[in-house]
Design the sequence.
């Protein structure tokens, strides 16, 4: 095979990005391109656009997540979600470049049923800061799909390469080359992996009173401590609408508790935590409006949905995602106090997010004493919390261990055959649930480590996240060489 020192391909295929917009006449303008369609709510001042539209950014500093822009196609002015657009000469404007995507994310995206052999993406490297990796979907010898990863290196002159015999001045040139010549890769690159729309950020004003007239409830999907949850619409956006019960005895207390949940959610912004959009408090019923996750709560998903047939790799991924979200909650100083499969939601592409912050508390000095009348789920609650009402981040870790049991048993009740009191008394005497049938030894070791009697001996969520991440990588070959 001939050596290629420098390859340039003028065929832009479907990834052509017209950089002529940065011409002299636009030299003082900040031009971005839309990566997705967005149907804005006009009463909130949001600007609609189609994928590929050019947007002139007028203000990107007043509100972090929402920028004021003009759509150069429609000439209309409004606010756009910053995570839906990219600078026109930025890598994220390409369909195949996935920013803020790690190895696990790449495998989750590529292994979706609609993808075929050769589907690919380029992402930042997990291990080498400032470098990229190519992830490609391939068939193994048993005709099963799996993802292969290749390091993209740089020469001293800044050229990109996977194999040193073929170097490129840009990542686009590298992609174009391997779409016509596998040259040592597992297969030809065929089409970029589909980018799923990111979560629309919370309203730019923070905890904002939403326009109630833009809300519509469609279907009852659940009930919680203080109300009911509906699938609904906010304008054209799919949302979940939590409605406070109006027939409760202590209405003032419940209103405060209901809105306190929204305030906690406002302070928590993470890819594995459900996003708050706003509230409606001017008339009854009071609403909390959040993003909608299509596959519902994890417990039902495990018992009755697609989760009945989850691969072990996906179970590990779910555990890692939840630990990642909880590590963030830990850093923010909160304890969830109700971590369980019923309070985890499942979205597209096997993404899971932590929800239901009705019992969550902010820690003062690393420890929290809770009113003895507060109700907490006994079988998920750490012994020091159940007996002394003493909560720390490590009491959430205990609950995470119970959630791991729910995951590996596809939604089975913990402590089967025991009442709440029987389970608590057994735990206080040193009993721990045995390893479930067909449960991997290392998985059970991680689960068991969450149930140490001394809270100080339990792992942190950051450690748990790293252990599951390493667990997944050990189960798969690392990087391929060409």
Sequence:
């Amino acid at each position: 095979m001939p050596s290629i020192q420098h390859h340039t391909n003028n065929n832009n295929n479907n990834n052509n990005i017209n950089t002529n917009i940065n011409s002299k006449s636009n030299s003082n303008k900040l031009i971005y391109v839309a990566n997705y369609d967005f149907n804005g709510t006009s009463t909130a001042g949001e600007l609609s656009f189609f994928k590929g539209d050019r947007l002139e950014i007028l203000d990107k500093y007043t509100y972090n997540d929402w920028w004021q822009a003009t759509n150069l196609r429609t000439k209309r002015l409004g606010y756009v979600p910053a995570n839906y657009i990219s600078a026109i000469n930025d890598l994220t404007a390409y369909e195949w470049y996935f920013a803020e995507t790690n190895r696990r994310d790449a495998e989750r995206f590529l292994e979706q049923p609609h993808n075929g052999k050769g589907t690919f993406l380029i992402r930042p490297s997990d291990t080498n800061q400032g470098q990229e990796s190519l992830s490609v979907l391939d068939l193994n010898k048993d005709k099963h799909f799996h993802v292969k990863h290749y390091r993209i290196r740089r020469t001293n002159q800044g050229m990109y390469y996977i194999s040193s015999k073929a170097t490129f001045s840009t990542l686009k040139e590298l992609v174009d080359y391997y779409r016509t010549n596998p040259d040592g890769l597992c297969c030809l690159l065929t089409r970029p992996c589909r980018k799923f729309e990111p979560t629309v950020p919370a309203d730019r004003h923070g905890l904002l009173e939403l326009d109630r007239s833009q809300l519509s409830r469609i279907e009852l999907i659940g009930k919680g401590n203080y109300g009911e949850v509906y699938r609904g619409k906010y304008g054209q956006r799919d949302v979940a609408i939590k409605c406070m019960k109006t027939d409760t005895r202590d209405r003032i207390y419940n209103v405060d508790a209901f809105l306190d949940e929204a305030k906690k959610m406002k302070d928590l912004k993470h890819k594995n935590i459900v996003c708050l959009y706003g509230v409606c408090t001017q008339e009854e019923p009071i609403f909390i409006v959040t993003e909608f996750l299509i596959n519902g709560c994890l417990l039902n998903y495990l018992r009755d949905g697609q989760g009945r047939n989850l691969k072990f790799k996906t179970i590990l991924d779910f555990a890692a995602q939840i630990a990642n979200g909880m590590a963030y909650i830990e850093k923010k100083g909160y304890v969830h106090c109700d971590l369980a499969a019923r309070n985890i939601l499942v979205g597209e592409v096997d993404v899971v997010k932590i929800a239901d912050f009705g019992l969550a508390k902010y820690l003062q000095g690393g420890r929290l004493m809770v009113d003895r009348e507060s109700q907490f789920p006994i079988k998920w609650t750490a012994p020091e919390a159940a007996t002394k009402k003493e909560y720390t981040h490590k009491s959430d870790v205990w609950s995470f261990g119970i959630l791991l049991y729910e995951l590996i048993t596809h939604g089975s009740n913990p402590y089967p055959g025991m009442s709440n009191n029987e389970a608590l008394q057994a735990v206080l005497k040193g009993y721990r649930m045995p390893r479930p049938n067909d449960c991997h030894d290392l998985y059970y070791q991680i689960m068991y480590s969450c149930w140490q009697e001394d809270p100080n001996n339990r792992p942190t969520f950051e450690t748990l996240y790293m252990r599951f991440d390493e667990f997944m990588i050990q189960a798969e070959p690392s990087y391929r060489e060409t």
